User: Fold this.
Amino acid sequence: MSVVDTAKALISYDTSGPPARELPLAKWIKDYLEDIGASTDLQVVEKDRANVIGKLGEGKGPGLLLSGHIDVVLSGDLSLWKVTTPFEGVVKNGRLYGRGACDMKGPDAAILEAVKALSKERLKRQLTLSFTAGEDTGGWYVTKAIEEGKVTKRDARIGIIPEPSMMEVIRAHKGGGSMKIMVYGKAAHSSRPELGINAINKASDLLQELRRLQRNLNEKPHPLLGPTTIECTLINGGFKANIIPDQCTLTLSTRLIPGHDKPAVSKGWLKEAINACKARDPEFKAEILSATASKPLDVPENSEVVRLLTKILKKQPTGAPYYTEAVSYTAAGIPTIICGPGNIDQAHTPDEYITLKQLDLGVKILKESIRQVCLI
Ligand SMILES: [Zn+2]
Assistant:
Protein backbone atom coordinates (compact mmCIF):
# COMPACT_ATOMS: atom_id res chain seq x y z
CA MET A 1 0.00 0.00 0.00
CA SER A 2 1.42 3.40 -0.94
CA VAL A 3 0.96 6.53 1.16
CA VAL A 4 -1.75 7.65 -1.31
CA ASP A 5 -3.62 4.34 -0.99
CA THR A 6 -3.39 4.56 2.80
CA ALA A 7 -4.68 8.15 2.75
CA LYS A 8 -7.58 7.07 0.49
CA ALA A 9 -8.44 4.28 2.93
CA LEU A 10 -8.48 6.75 5.84
CA ILE A 11 -10.60 9.24 3.86
CA SER A 12 -13.13 6.51 3.00
CA TYR A 13 -14.21 6.35 6.68
CA ASP A 14 -16.71 9.11 7.41
CA THR A 15 -15.35 10.49 10.69
CA SER A 16 -16.89 13.91 10.15
CA GLY A 17 -18.81 15.68 12.82
CA PRO A 18 -20.17 16.73 15.10
CA PRO A 19 -21.39 14.16 15.80
CA ALA A 20 -18.29 12.17 14.81
CA ARG A 21 -17.83 8.39 14.81
CA GLU A 22 -14.13 7.54 14.82
CA LEU A 23 -14.33 3.96 16.18
CA PRO A 24 -14.41 2.02 12.84
CA LEU A 25 -11.38 3.95 11.54
CA ALA A 26 -9.56 3.56 14.87
CA LYS A 27 -10.04 -0.23 14.49
CA TRP A 28 -8.65 -0.10 10.93
CA ILE A 29 -5.54 1.77 12.16
CA LYS A 30 -5.16 -0.69 15.05
CA ASP A 31 -5.03 -3.59 12.54
CA TYR A 32 -2.56 -1.69 10.35
CA LEU A 33 -0.27 -1.06 13.35
CA GLU A 34 -0.49 -4.69 14.52
CA ASP A 35 0.42 -5.88 11.02
CA ILE A 36 3.71 -3.97 11.27
CA GLY A 37 4.46 -5.36 14.73
CA ALA A 38 3.28 -2.59 17.04
CA SER A 39 1.53 -3.22 20.32
CA THR A 40 -1.76 -1.34 20.31
CA ASP A 41 -4.34 0.07 22.64
CA LEU A 42 -7.80 0.96 21.40
CA GLN A 43 -9.12 3.49 23.89
CA VAL A 44 -12.88 3.78 23.53
CA VAL A 45 -13.70 7.19 24.98
CA GLU A 46 -17.40 7.33 24.26
CA LYS A 47 -19.93 5.36 22.23
CA ASP A 48 -18.49 4.99 18.68
CA ARG A 49 -15.52 7.19 19.51
CA ALA A 50 -11.96 6.02 20.15
CA ASN A 51 -8.28 6.91 20.20
CA VAL A 52 -5.77 4.32 19.09
CA ILE A 53 -2.22 4.20 20.41
CA GLY A 54 0.56 2.09 18.97
CA LYS A 55 4.02 1.39 20.37
CA LEU A 56 7.11 -0.05 18.73
CA GLY A 57 10.18 -0.90 20.78
CA GLU A 58 8.16 -0.61 23.98
CA GLY A 59 10.26 -0.08 27.11
CA LYS A 60 13.43 0.85 25.26
CA GLY A 61 13.52 4.32 26.77
CA PRO A 62 11.57 7.40 25.78
CA GLY A 63 11.83 8.18 22.09
CA LEU A 64 9.57 9.91 19.60
CA LEU A 65 5.82 10.52 19.61
CA LEU A 66 4.00 11.01 16.30
CA SER A 67 0.39 12.05 16.69
CA GLY A 68 -2.53 12.95 14.45
CA HIS A 69 -6.27 13.38 14.88
CA ILE A 70 -8.57 11.09 12.90
CA ASP A 71 -11.78 13.14 12.94
CA VAL A 72 -12.61 15.66 10.23
CA VAL A 73 -14.96 18.62 9.94
CA LEU A 74 -18.34 18.23 8.23
CA SER A 75 -18.50 18.17 4.42
CA GLY A 76 -20.60 21.32 4.14
CA ASP A 77 -22.57 22.04 0.96
CA LEU A 78 -22.07 18.96 -1.23
CA SER A 79 -22.78 20.93 -4.42
CA LEU A 80 -19.47 22.77 -3.83
CA TRP A 81 -17.50 19.51 -4.11
CA LYS A 82 -16.62 19.45 -7.84
CA VAL A 83 -13.66 17.03 -8.08
CA THR A 84 -14.92 14.24 -5.85
CA THR A 85 -17.34 13.45 -3.05
CA PRO A 86 -15.97 13.97 0.49
CA PHE A 87 -15.27 10.34 1.42
CA GLU A 88 -13.91 9.10 -1.89
CA GLY A 89 -10.24 10.07 -2.22
CA VAL A 90 -9.33 10.89 -5.81
CA VAL A 91 -5.96 11.82 -7.36
CA LYS A 92 -6.05 14.48 -10.05
CA ASN A 93 -3.27 16.74 -11.37
CA GLY A 94 -0.82 15.74 -8.66
CA ARG A 95 -3.28 16.32 -5.83
CA LEU A 96 -5.20 13.97 -3.58
CA TYR A 97 -8.74 15.27 -2.96
CA GLY A 98 -11.18 14.33 -0.19
CA ARG A 99 -12.34 15.46 3.26
CA GLY A 100 -9.28 15.36 5.51
CA ALA A 101 -6.80 15.08 2.60
CA CYS A 102 -4.74 17.81 4.28
CA ASP A 103 -6.37 18.08 7.77
CA MET A 104 -5.25 15.53 8.52
CA LYS A 105 -5.79 12.08 7.06
CA GLY A 106 -3.11 12.71 4.43
CA PRO A 107 -0.60 13.55 7.20
CA ASP A 108 -1.89 10.56 9.25
CA ALA A 109 -1.14 8.34 6.24
CA ALA A 110 2.37 9.88 6.10
CA ILE A 111 2.89 8.76 9.73
CA LEU A 112 1.68 5.22 8.94
CA GLU A 113 3.84 5.00 5.80
CA ALA A 114 6.98 6.30 7.58
CA VAL A 115 6.50 3.88 10.47
CA LYS A 116 5.86 0.92 8.16
CA ALA A 117 9.00 1.67 6.16
CA LEU A 118 11.16 1.52 9.31
CA SER A 119 9.24 -1.15 11.24
CA LYS A 120 11.80 -3.88 10.47
CA GLU A 121 14.70 -1.82 11.83
CA ARG A 122 15.97 -2.41 15.36
CA LEU A 123 14.66 0.46 17.46
CA LYS A 124 16.97 1.74 20.17
CA ARG A 125 14.29 4.03 21.57
CA GLN A 126 10.54 3.62 21.76
CA LEU A 127 8.38 4.98 18.95
CA THR A 128 4.83 5.94 20.00
CA LEU A 129 1.97 6.59 17.61
CA SER A 130 -1.16 8.32 18.80
CA PHE A 131 -4.29 8.74 16.68
CA THR A 132 -6.89 10.79 18.47
CA ALA A 133 -10.61 11.48 18.29
CA GLY A 134 -12.43 14.76 18.75
CA GLU A 135 -9.84 17.36 17.77
CA ASP A 136 -11.98 19.14 15.20
CA THR A 137 -15.37 17.78 16.22
CA GLY A 138 -15.56 18.29 19.98
CA GLY A 139 -14.21 16.19 22.80
CA TRP A 140 -10.47 16.86 22.69
CA TYR A 141 -9.89 13.21 23.62
CA VAL A 142 -6.12 13.61 23.48
CA THR A 143 -6.52 14.59 27.14
CA LYS A 144 -8.02 11.14 27.90
CA ALA A 145 -5.02 9.44 26.30
CA ILE A 146 -2.75 11.52 28.53
CA GLU A 147 -4.84 11.38 31.73
CA GLU A 148 -5.21 7.61 31.55
CA GLY A 149 -1.47 7.15 31.02
CA LYS A 150 -1.73 5.83 27.44
CA VAL A 151 0.93 8.33 26.33
CA THR A 152 3.45 9.56 28.92
CA LYS A 153 6.88 11.10 29.03
CA ARG A 154 8.21 7.62 29.78
CA ASP A 155 7.11 6.70 26.24
CA ALA A 156 8.37 9.76 24.40
CA ARG A 157 10.74 12.60 25.20
CA ILE A 158 9.66 14.70 22.20
CA GLY A 159 6.67 14.78 19.83
CA ILE A 160 5.71 15.84 16.32
CA ILE A 161 2.14 16.46 15.12
CA PRO A 162 2.12 16.65 11.32
CA GLU A 163 -0.86 19.02 11.04
CA PRO A 164 -0.59 20.80 7.67
CA SER A 165 2.17 23.42 7.94
CA MET A 166 3.83 23.08 4.51
CA MET A 167 6.59 21.40 6.52
CA GLU A 168 7.30 24.61 8.39
CA VAL A 169 8.53 23.98 11.95
CA ILE A 170 5.89 25.51 14.21
CA ARG A 171 7.06 25.80 17.79
CA ALA A 172 4.55 28.39 19.04
CA HIS A 173 0.89 29.27 18.70
CA LYS A 174 -1.53 31.36 20.68
CA GLY A 175 -3.82 30.11 23.41
CA GLY A 176 -7.51 30.89 23.30
CA GLY A 177 -9.96 32.22 25.78
CA SER A 178 -13.30 33.86 26.28
CA MET A 179 -14.90 36.32 28.66
CA LYS A 180 -18.51 37.27 29.23
CA ILE A 181 -19.59 40.59 30.72
CA MET A 182 -22.99 41.87 31.74
CA VAL A 183 -23.48 45.63 31.42
CA TYR A 184 -26.41 46.97 33.46
CA GLY A 185 -28.79 49.83 32.70
CA LYS A 186 -32.28 50.88 33.76
CA ALA A 187 -35.44 50.19 31.76
CA ALA A 188 -37.73 53.03 30.69
CA HIS A 189 -40.14 53.78 27.86
CA SER A 190 -38.12 54.65 24.77
CA SER A 191 -40.04 57.93 24.50
CA ARG A 192 -38.51 58.96 27.87
CA PRO A 193 -34.85 57.86 27.62
CA GLU A 194 -33.83 60.40 30.23
CA LEU A 195 -35.65 58.27 32.83
CA GLY A 196 -33.63 55.16 32.03
CA ILE A 197 -30.02 54.07 31.49
CA ASN A 198 -29.35 52.50 28.11
CA ALA A 199 -27.25 49.35 28.72
CA ILE A 200 -26.34 49.12 25.02
CA ASN A 201 -24.87 52.62 25.07
CA LYS A 202 -22.90 51.77 28.20
CA ALA A 203 -21.64 48.54 26.55
CA SER A 204 -20.50 50.64 23.60
CA ASP A 205 -18.43 52.79 26.01
CA LEU A 206 -16.80 49.64 27.35
CA LEU A 207 -16.03 48.47 23.79
CA GLN A 208 -14.24 51.78 23.16
CA GLU A 209 -12.14 51.14 26.26
CA LEU A 210 -11.33 47.64 24.97
CA ARG A 211 -10.18 49.12 21.62
CA ARG A 212 -7.77 51.27 23.62
CA LEU A 213 -6.51 48.16 25.43
CA GLN A 214 -6.01 46.45 22.06
CA ARG A 215 -3.88 49.34 20.80
CA ASN A 216 -1.66 48.90 23.89
CA LEU A 217 -1.40 45.14 23.31
CA ASN A 218 -0.47 45.78 19.67
CA GLU A 219 2.65 47.50 20.93
CA LYS A 220 3.87 44.35 22.73
CA PRO A 221 3.80 41.61 20.08
CA HIS A 222 5.37 38.13 20.41
CA PRO A 223 8.20 37.77 17.85
CA LEU A 224 6.53 34.80 16.10
CA LEU A 225 2.85 35.32 16.89
CA GLY A 226 2.10 39.02 16.92
CA PRO A 227 0.01 40.55 19.72
CA THR A 228 -2.64 39.11 21.99
CA THR A 229 -6.04 40.03 20.54
CA ILE A 230 -9.36 40.69 22.24
CA GLU A 231 -12.42 40.80 20.01
CA CYS A 232 -16.05 41.20 20.93
CA THR A 233 -17.72 38.45 18.91
CA LEU A 234 -21.22 38.35 20.40
CA ILE A 235 -23.46 41.09 21.72
CA ASN A 236 -26.92 40.69 23.14
CA GLY A 237 -28.99 43.52 24.58
CA GLY A 238 -32.55 44.73 24.87
CA PHE A 239 -35.80 42.82 24.50
CA LYS A 240 -38.36 45.16 22.93
CA ALA A 241 -38.09 47.98 20.40
CA ASN A 242 -39.81 50.58 22.58
CA ILE A 243 -37.99 49.85 25.84
CA ILE A 244 -34.65 51.31 26.88
CA PRO A 245 -32.55 48.18 27.49
CA ASP A 246 -31.56 47.42 31.07
CA GLN A 247 -29.05 44.68 30.22
CA CYS A 248 -26.44 44.00 27.53
CA THR A 249 -24.03 41.04 27.47
CA LEU A 250 -20.75 41.08 25.60
CA THR A 251 -18.79 37.93 24.75
CA LEU A 252 -15.12 38.46 24.06
CA SER A 253 -12.87 36.01 22.21
CA THR A 254 -9.23 36.28 23.19
CA ARG A 255 -6.12 34.88 21.46
CA LEU A 256 -3.32 34.90 23.97
CA ILE A 257 0.44 34.96 23.50
CA PRO A 258 2.77 33.32 26.04
CA GLY A 259 2.75 35.29 29.29
CA HIS A 260 -0.91 36.28 28.88
CA ASP A 261 -2.41 32.82 29.40
CA LYS A 262 -3.46 33.06 33.04
CA PRO A 263 -7.24 33.80 33.26
CA ALA A 264 -6.35 36.36 35.96
CA VAL A 265 -4.31 38.37 33.44
CA SER A 266 -7.07 38.94 30.88
CA LYS A 267 -9.61 39.30 33.69
CA GLY A 268 -7.36 41.99 35.17
CA TRP A 269 -7.39 43.93 31.89
CA LEU A 270 -11.16 43.72 31.77
CA LYS A 271 -11.49 44.96 35.36
CA GLU A 272 -9.26 47.92 34.47
CA ALA A 273 -11.44 48.74 31.44
CA ILE A 274 -14.59 48.56 33.61
CA ASN A 275 -12.97 50.76 36.28
CA ALA A 276 -11.95 53.31 33.63
CA CYS A 277 -15.59 53.51 32.48
CA LYS A 278 -16.80 53.84 36.10
CA ALA A 279 -14.31 56.63 36.83
CA ARG A 280 -15.70 58.66 33.94
CA ASP A 281 -19.36 57.74 34.40
CA PRO A 282 -20.97 57.13 37.81
CA GLU A 283 -23.93 55.43 36.09
CA PHE A 284 -21.68 52.77 34.53
CA LYS A 285 -22.26 49.32 36.04
CA ALA A 286 -20.87 46.01 34.74
CA GLU A 287 -19.97 42.57 36.02
CA ILE A 288 -17.63 39.87 34.66
CA LEU A 289 -19.72 36.68 34.38
CA SER A 290 -16.95 34.31 33.26
CA ALA A 291 -13.33 34.30 32.13
CA THR A 292 -11.39 31.36 30.72
CA ALA A 293 -8.00 31.02 29.07
CA SER A 294 -6.10 28.11 27.54
CA LYS A 295 -2.37 27.78 27.30
CA PRO A 296 -0.44 28.84 24.21
CA LEU A 297 2.23 26.59 22.70
CA ASP A 298 5.75 27.84 23.30
CA VAL A 299 8.39 25.14 22.81
CA PRO A 300 11.78 26.81 23.29
CA GLU A 301 13.88 27.47 20.22
CA ASN A 302 16.84 25.54 21.67
CA SER A 303 14.81 22.44 22.68
CA GLU A 304 15.68 19.03 21.22
CA VAL A 305 12.60 18.74 19.01
CA VAL A 306 12.98 22.21 17.46
CA ARG A 307 16.68 21.62 16.83
CA LEU A 308 15.95 18.20 15.28
CA LEU A 309 13.43 19.48 12.73
CA THR A 310 15.19 22.74 11.91
CA LYS A 311 18.36 20.73 11.22
CA ILE A 312 16.61 18.16 9.00
CA LEU A 313 14.64 20.81 7.07
CA LYS A 314 17.26 23.57 7.21
CA LYS A 315 14.59 26.06 8.25
CA GLN A 316 14.01 28.56 11.04
CA PRO A 317 11.11 27.77 13.39
CA THR A 318 7.93 29.81 13.13
CA GLY A 319 4.51 30.34 14.73
CA ALA A 320 0.92 29.53 13.65
CA PRO A 321 -2.43 31.24 14.16
CA TYR A 322 -4.34 28.00 14.95
CA TYR A 323 -4.63 25.93 18.16
CA THR A 324 -3.41 22.30 18.33
CA GLU A 325 -3.08 19.21 20.54
CA ALA A 326 0.64 20.01 20.87
CA VAL A 327 -0.30 22.09 23.94
CA SER A 328 -1.72 19.01 25.70
CA TYR A 329 1.36 16.83 25.03
CA THR A 330 3.77 19.63 25.92
CA ALA A 331 1.95 20.21 29.22
CA ALA A 332 2.34 16.45 29.89
CA GLY A 333 6.12 16.76 29.63
CA ILE A 334 6.52 15.81 25.96
CA PRO A 335 7.64 18.99 24.14
CA THR A 336 5.71 18.73 20.86
CA ILE A 337 5.83 20.85 17.73
CA ILE A 338 3.78 21.02 14.53
CA CYS A 339 5.44 20.04 11.26
CA GLY A 340 3.45 18.36 8.52
CA PRO A 341 2.64 18.24 4.83
CA GLY A 342 -0.11 20.25 3.15
CA ASN A 343 -1.40 23.78 3.38
CA ILE A 344 -3.76 24.83 6.20
CA ASP A 345 -5.52 27.10 3.67
CA GLN A 346 -7.03 23.95 2.12
CA ALA A 347 -8.28 22.62 5.46
CA HIS A 348 -12.05 22.61 6.09
CA THR A 349 -12.83 23.61 2.46
CA PRO A 350 -14.88 21.84 -0.23
CA ASP A 351 -12.57 19.91 -2.58
CA GLU A 352 -9.98 19.79 0.20
CA TYR A 353 -6.67 18.50 -1.19
CA ILE A 354 -3.02 17.85 -0.49
CA THR A 355 -0.33 17.74 -3.18
CA LEU A 356 1.38 14.38 -3.65
CA LYS A 357 4.69 16.23 -3.51
CA GLN A 358 3.92 17.47 0.04
CA LEU A 359 2.69 14.03 1.05
CA ASP A 360 5.96 12.40 -0.12
CA LEU A 361 8.01 15.10 1.60
CA GLY A 362 6.04 14.47 4.80
CA VAL A 363 6.87 10.74 4.70
CA LYS A 364 10.55 11.50 4.06
CA ILE A 365 10.89 13.97 6.94
CA LEU A 366 8.97 11.79 9.41
CA LYS A 367 11.19 8.81 8.46
CA GLU A 368 14.31 10.89 9.05
CA SER A 369 12.94 12.08 12.41
CA ILE A 370 12.24 8.49 13.52
CA ARG A 371 15.73 7.49 12.40
CA GLN A 372 17.42 10.26 14.34
CA VAL A 373 15.46 9.80 17.56
CA CYS A 374 14.78 6.06 17.68
CA LEU A 375 17.42 4.35 15.55
CA ILE A 376 20.65 6.21 16.27
ZN1 LIG B 1 -6.21 19.45 12.16
Q: What stands out?
A: The chain has nine helices and 20 strands. The pocket of zinc ion is lined by residues 69, 103-104, 135-136, 163 (CB under 6 Å). The domain at 175-293 is CATH 3.30.70.360 (Alpha-Beta Plaits). The radius of gyration is 24 Å.
